[in-house]
Amino acid sequence: KTGTGAAAPPDFCAAHLTLDRIVGWAPEAGHKAGDGGPVVVTYTYHVQPAPWARDAEAQRVFPMVARVVEGDGRLELRQAFVRGEQGWVPTIGG
Asked: Nearest Cα to 42, choosing from 76, 2, 4, 5?
């Protein structure tokens, strides 16, 4: 964690994502279901882009921002989770 309590260094904000639906989940490679190891959740999302992220020129410069904005409700993302003391916790870089 950083001094601000963030799990990673701060970055600029291009959009706010909210969960649309969970498509599925599976144990991370090398693990079996129920072994307590990490799981990878596949999901779709809804996006509320920052005002600047709607701009065509900004999307040209940041093509991944354009992809995320255009993927609203359709693009599938993946996130790895591990079981912690308080429940499931996303892993950094997962």
From this structure: 76
For residue 74, the one-letter residue type is: R
Cβ atoms of 80 and 45 closer than 8 Å: no
Model confidence over 1-12: pLDDT tens digits?
Answer: 445 555 666 677
Residue length of the chain: 94
Q: What are phi and psi of 60, to 5 degrees?
A: -70, -40
Among 66, 93, 72, smallest CA distance to 81 is for 93
Name 17's Cβ contacts closer than 8 Å, sequence gap at least 6: 45, 46, 47, 48, 68
